[in-house]
Amino acid sequence: QVQLVESGGGLVQAGGSLRLSCAASGRTFSVYNMGWFRQAPGKEREFVAGVRWPGGSTYYADSVKGRFIISRDNAKNAVYLQMNSLKPEDTAVYYCAVCRRWGSRSTTDFDSWGQGTQVTVSS
Fold first, then answer.
1. Whose CA is closest to 82, among 90, 4, 114?
2. Among candidates 75, 20, 28, which has minimal Cα distance to 48?
3. Residues facing 80 on adjacent strands
4. For residue range 10-28, what is the model confidence (pLDDT) as tens digits?
5. Are 22 and 96 in contact (CB under 8 A)?
6. pLDDT tens digit string along 34-88?
7. Three-class SS of residue 29?
8. Is 99 exposed, middle or buried (0-12, 13-18, 19+ CB in 10 A)?
9. Sign (positive/negative) of CA torsion 54, 57, 63, 66?
10. What's CA 5's distance to the chain center, in Å?
C-alpha cells in the first residue's frame, strides 16, 4: 500500500501560480501511474491530470490543459502539479492518488487517496 500526503496549497490571486506536491511512502512508488483530482464545495471530485510510469507521459482535463503541468520525481517519491494562470474556478481541495487504469478520468480507477490540500483563488 502507498501512503500519499499532499502539500503546497494556499490562497492566491487570479492569474497567479502554485505548485502542489504529493509525497509517497510505503510500497515502491515508482512503478505506479499517478494522478491529481480536485473537489470544489458541493461538486463531485473531478480528474485534473495523470502521469505515467516510467515514461512520464501525461494527460489532462480540458479545463486545465495549457495551464497546469503534472510531473514526477521517482528518486524523491514525489508527484507535482504546477498550476499557472489560476482562475477562481480552480478553487478546490486537490488530491493525488494512484492510477490503476491508465487514461481513466474516473475516481473508481484511482485509489490510495491523500488527505488533500486546499487551493483558493481570489478574483
1. 90
2. 20
3. 21, 71
4. 999 999 999 999 999 887 6
5. yes
6. 999 999 999 999 999 999 987 789 999 999 999 999 999 988 889 999 999 999 9
7. helix
8. buried
9. positive
10. 11
Euclidean distance between CA atoms 83 and 118, whole angstroms: 13
Return the C-alpha cell found at 123.
Answer: 478574483
Q: Which residue has the cell 494556499?
A: 10
Q: How many residues does the chain have?
A: 123
CA distances for 62 relative to 10, 48, 49, 67, 90, angstroms:
23, 9, 10, 10, 13
Measured in degrees and rounded to the nearest 5, phi and psi for residue 116 equal: 95, 160
HEC letters along 54-97: CCCCEEECCCCCCCEEEEEEHHHCEEEEEECCCCHHHCEEEEEE
pLDDT the model gives residue 109: 97
**End-to-end CA separation in angstroms for the chain:** 40
Q: How far apart are CA 8 and CA 22, in angstroms?
A: 9
